[in-house]
Amino acid sequence: MSSTALTSRLNVVDSLRGFALLAIVLLHNIEHYNLYFLPENLPEWLKWLDHIAWDATFLTLSGNAYATFSLLFGFSFFVQLRNARARGCDFRMRFAWRMFLLAGFAMLHSLFYNGDILLLYAACGLLLIPASSWSNRTLVILSALLMAQPYAWGKIIYALCNPEYIDTNNMFMPYAIAATNAGMHGNLADTLWSNLRDGILYSNIWQVEAGRLSLTPALFMIGMVIGRKNLFICSQSSTMFWRKALLTAILAAIPLYLLRELVPPHIHNVTVKAFYNVAAGRIFNVASMTILVSVFVLCWFRAGKGYRWQQCLTPYGRMSLTNYISQSIIGVAIYYNCGLGLYRTTGATACLLIGFAIFALQLTFSRRWLASHRQGPLEWLWKRLTWL
Predict the structure, then answer these.
(1) CA 352 distance to own-chain centroid
(2) Which of 196, 216, 228, 347 would staple 50 via disulfide (CB 3.0–4.6 Å)?
(3) What gap in Å lies between CA 359 and CA 353, rounded to an integer?
(4) 149 φ/ψ sector (left φ>0, alpha ψ -120 to 50, else beta)
């Protein structure tokens, strides 16, 4: 592989990661970083605009940002494994240590924000160690099975066979209520303590119940297959692949969206309805994420080295860990009661503007930092600790 191709591939991946990170900061802002609150003392025209902004943001970005991030996590593992093998090293056990360190970053992040995904990544990432020796065919088949949400469908079948069985799939709710109350009414000490006590359980139980425990390793493995097949390198075969993926995803997304939206109102069994929402939602997320990634990569290929707006996102994606954790700290300081408490007065429109402002601030910092450093501060620390 030529150095030019390698650089091109990493740039498109960093840019795509930056786009996913931008989507995450926008989504988290309109959610007030898990303080779901709609201000009532707003003019009617602004409430109408907020409603449109909320629906449009969640339709286009919800689930896609997380899924794209997960796909690229698996790709990054492939790159690290390949580079280590090129040096004559076995990276697998080093990667296990790296996941342990990621769990430490997850605890730091969870101290400030009760919506962390890094702990789930650290746990699911361990599956990549044995998966690195599996064939592409095995990885694709297993990923497809996991994406289909077998646990949710098993629950649905069991509930249909046992109508008296009730599982609303909301074990996370008591911890969510406690964490939300601390964020809305507590001081800094209350918020930090609640995040460690309730927030970690809230975040991770919700992710398990939302089907991410199945979807995350599936996307990790698909990301590894994409790396093996060089699909982020501009070529005739990779361009054809992304075109086919885009067409297939569009054709699948339309019926999947209808199944997600139109079927649940007609389901009266609470258990079946709860787990159908999980299965239908996650499967639709795979299709919508594929559309987003395919369009992004095809745009990059068409421009040769990406359009200018894509290139702009590259430094943001190169510092993804630093920006992901710091954007949560900034968001909590803006919306929580221990900070400015703006959750009480900001609707979706204002929150989107704040989200773009946070992005602009972080992007400026990323550019200036990378002008004199090879990595972001937390990326550098993670690498140094990995290779102790």
Answers:
(1) 18
(2) 347
(3) 10
(4) left
Q: How many CB atoms lie within 10 A of CB 144?
A: 13
End-to-end Cα distance, the chain: 29
Backbone angles phi, psi at 272, to 5 degrees: -60, -45
Q: Which residues contact 188 (CB under 8 A, 6 or more apart)?
A: 338
Q: For residues 263 and 272, give the distance between their C-alpha atoms in angstroms, rounded to a whole number.
A: 11
**Could you tell me the CA-to-CA distances from 265 to 37, 274, 284 in Å, in that order?**
25, 11, 18
pLDDT at 6: 47
DSSP state of 33: T
Q: Which two tokens stand for residue 173?
A: 């709710």
Burial profile 355-387: b = 16 or more Cβ within 10 angstroms, e = fewer: beebbeebbebbeebbeeeebbebbeebeeebe
User: Which CA distances in Å does 232 have to 15, 81, 288?
Assistant: 12, 17, 19
For 14-42, the pLDDT digits (tens) are 999 999 999 999 999 999 999 999 898 88
C-alpha separations of 134 from 90, 253, 283 in Å: 16, 29, 24
pTM of the model: 0.93
- Flag residues of the chain having pLDDT under 70: 1-9
- Rounded Cα–Cα distance for residues 161 and 232 (Å): 46
Q: Is there a contact between 94 and 77 (Cβ–Cβ < 8 Å)?
A: no
DSSP assigned state of 247:
H
Containing H/E element for 294? Answer: helix 270-303
Closest CA to 152 of 100, 210, 80: 210
